[in-house]
Amino acid sequence: MTFDDQKVSNRMQAALPNESRRVYYRGRCNSFVKRVNGARRMRIFVLLLTFVILACKPLPTRAEPTEAAAPVSRAKSCGESIPNTSTEEFNKKCIALAGPLAAMRGGMLVLRMDNGDRKNFNNKDGTGAMEGGYGYGLADFYPSTHIFVVADFGVDAGRIIAVDGRTGRTLDFGYASPHFSPLGNWALTIEYDVDGVTESDFAILDVRGKKPIKIWASKTSKKRLPAKAKFAAWVNDRTISFTSSGQKSVFLFQADNGAWDISTTMPSN
């Protein structure tokens, strides 16, 4: 309707008697109410139809297959990122990797826990420096889990203590070198021959409690690792890869029943 048509309509409505005008407006109102009610009924119908479709949709009889989740990426530890070098140089680079969480204060290694507390390792309290060795320093640091591996480096070997920066908990590993799993639940320990270089014995420890619990050892395992096997890396929190001379990689993994086993192929866990 144009503006002129609206003016004509308004004049016609004004010319109607009062009763006729009431009938006219009542008809207009009823028409408007019918349109509103019709729109409401349509919306209710659509909602009900949607509900029926969802309610009648059959549930899946089994879980739909999904793609395997990609391994969680984590920052490399000192042992993984720093090449073989002298104890002093390694300690400097490892402390640099730890950033504000570790520092050397003269003959004392200072570690900062996540809650702000400090743990101090003073050469005056150790034996390494007194025997002519380097003394306290970092043997490793895991940025993703804030696990510090502290060594009291002597002339020939060093006593190892791990410190969990999240809780302040300390674990004594003696003279065995621990390599922690990506989530920090397990530690593979390595003992060396008298030459200090050849890896001779391996063990897996559950480190989730107050004390490490040995759950697998190469000495007592029915399946043996190849001769001269060397630790390569934790593949994930349930799989470790080893290398050996003249052979392909060998894997030590946790099976579904919780036991640890050896395989020459990459496990699917």
Notes on the protein architecture:
The chain is about 25% helix and about 35% strand. It has about 270 residues and is of the alpha+beta class. The strands form four sheets. Strands 4-5-6-7 form a four-stranded antiparallel β-sheet. A four-stranded antiparallel β-sheet has the order 8-9-10-11, with no helix packed on it. Strands 12-13-14-15 form a four-stranded antiparallel β-sheet, with no helix packed on it. A hairpin with a 6-residue loop joins strand 10 and strand 11. The chain is globular and about 75 Å long.
Question: Could you name the key traits of this structure?
Answer:
single chain; about 270 residues; alpha+beta; 4 helices
Please count the beta strands (DSSP E, at least 2 residues each): 15
Query: What average pLDDT do the residues reach?
Result: 81
Radius of gyration: 37 Å
Instruction: State the share of residues found in helices, binned by percent.
Output: 25-40%
Which oligomeric state applies? single chain
Layout of SSEs?
Elements: H1 3-15, H2 18-56, H3 78-81, H4 87-98, E1 102-105, E2 108-112, E3 118-122, E4 135-142, E5 147-153, E6 158-164, E7 170-174, E8 177-180, E9 186-192, E10 199-206, E11 213-217, E12 230-236, E13 239-244, E14 247-254, E15 260-263
Antiparallel strand pairs: 1-2, 2-3, 4-5, 5-6, 6-7, 8-9, 9-10, 10-11, 12-13, 13-14, 14-15
